[in-house]
Structure prediction request, 704 residues.
Amino acid sequence: MTQRTLHVSAAAASHVGAHNGGADTPFATISRQRAPRFPTVPAAPAVAQPGDTILVHEGVYREQVSPALGGLNEFNRITYTVADGEHAVIKGSEVVTDWRPLEIDGKPVPGVWHVSVPNALFGNFNPFAKPLRGDWLERPNDWTMSLGEVYLDGTSMYEAPSVDAVIAAEPRTFGYGPDWVSVTEPIDDPSKTIWQWHAQVGEGANSATEIWANFHDVNPNEHLTEINVRETCFYPERTGVNYLTVRGFEMAQAACGWAPPTGDQKGLLGTHWSKGWIIENNDIHDAFCSGISLGKDCSTGDNEASRFGRKPGYQIQQEVVFRAIRNGWSKETVGGHIVRGNHIHDCGQNGIVGHMGCAFSLIEDNHIHNIATKHEFFGHEIGGIKFHAAIDTIICHNHIHDCALGTWLDWEMQGTRITRNIYHDNWRDFMIEVTSGPCLIDNNVFGSFYSLDNVAQGTAFVHNLFCGTAQPRPVLNRSTPYHLPHSTAVAGYACVYGGDDRFYQNMFVGGPEFSKVTHRGTAYADGVPTSEAEYMARVHVNDPGDVEMFEQVPQPMYINGNAYLRGGDGTVAPSFAGEQTKYVAPAGAVARQVRSVAAREPVGVEGIRDAIAQAAQSQARITTEPDGSVWLDLDADDALLSLPTIVIDSELLGTPRIVTEPFVNPDGTALAVDTDLTGAARSATPMPGPVESLTTGHNHIRLA
Prediction:
């Protein structure tokens, strides 16, 4: 097959003569959708064939790239890439000028400007006319946001419910978060929230969208002022556009909407229910909701719970899974993507999102931060990474920080492995929900105050560092699917009874907890069975019976070889009483009390800030330097270094009770946790926690 290189240059619009994609006669736009300013200039994907490379040169491309064709297989891909040493930006926005100071009754309103934007600019998609809606979207619930956005010098402003609110520009100090956390999430920098705007959309293509914005002491006509006008930056119009590579771009400022697992999951960059994409080394930012989407399309349902209200979202999601299977969801048709080396930041809902379409994928070496930290809206689908049904997917060596929630894995996490990731300075680090395993979580650093929401079963936690508090919770009112091994075929359904977890050779750091919600360490499991045989004996004491027998007995927990360290308040993480081998640090001097903790009441925001400050005195803590580097500081004694341990492997991890699929690699071969977070080989008696190379005394180890 002939392989060609087709050149694209933003400067080609000024060229006179042919534009055939040659190095001297490049196309002016990337997409077959012509840029409005250059309607007669041909574009690359209109002629790209499997094996071709679309080489994009320096410039800003304000267009929505919709590839028409995909590759044939791994060896005959279509590749979109930026020329070496050049910088190409795809933007979903347009520059807006001609802002005018607002006057009311002939008097100027300080700082407030107005612009009238012809609706023709938006075509058939006007973000300012599109409400933010969808399943599991909860707040704000007193007014309806749009998908519109105003950017001043690249920074997004805040939408306001009225012109009066824009004029007042009151700072916002607290955002929206989940009810079960019990603490309202603070906005890190309230001073940014006073930059507000409001829009009203006129009827008809010949009318206009009126926008008012409070720019304070800035003249927007003297700065780069943009509004988003396109739903995506790079997204096929149809499904099944397979085997594309997208490499080296900056993509920003797209008006993609709320992306629940029951909706049409569009992202700023998305695969649209395709197979075999490679998305690498891109800078993805300022997606209104999701940066990269590997998720489902609308053919299996689009927000039917919130649109019709006849069934709960949970029931709709079950139907979505079966519709997808009937429509051909399988390892051979969908998923199997590689997302690596990307910088993903400043998105409203997710860095990476996916339901089912994320299965059989590799997510590695990405830097993800500032996700959902504007706190403009909240729903139960927010995370740096938010996946459903990520079957046999590996999430490896990502750096995730300063997010409302670092990673949220939901439904059908079967054969999934989360390994060698670094989490810190998130409001919460990690959540796994309503899935029955096997899921392996190993060699990760969970460095934030709130480490884990464990709302699942059949999960193995091996060689992790938990610096914060955690919540274990069963879910007995919802059953979710599990699959035949390494397949999308549904084998059955199960509620989450809690437990059937493995905690081997982790480190837990002591300190304060959220009252009645979270715990440090593993002592919360005291009294549960420690083997399946013991569990079954307890269950069948209640014979004869059925499901109620299993609801009355906690599932077994497999806990051994863990290290329990001092927190900044001098307390040691509590350990499981039935643990045969463990390290328990000596208690230290009690530091100042975190407010409200002694009374076992919710700690509140100030208490959390106190706890974070205390964490600097913990036996193990994560620190960041001004240059952005991330370090593990850990004080080790001889007892910790001499803890008798073994290499954790498939044989020891066994098989979760519900799914009856062993802990193995995605190809079915046996696995061993024989390397650490840095990739270094483990010894035959490995160190607990994520790093092998510990020495007696103070350890200062660079992680990222």
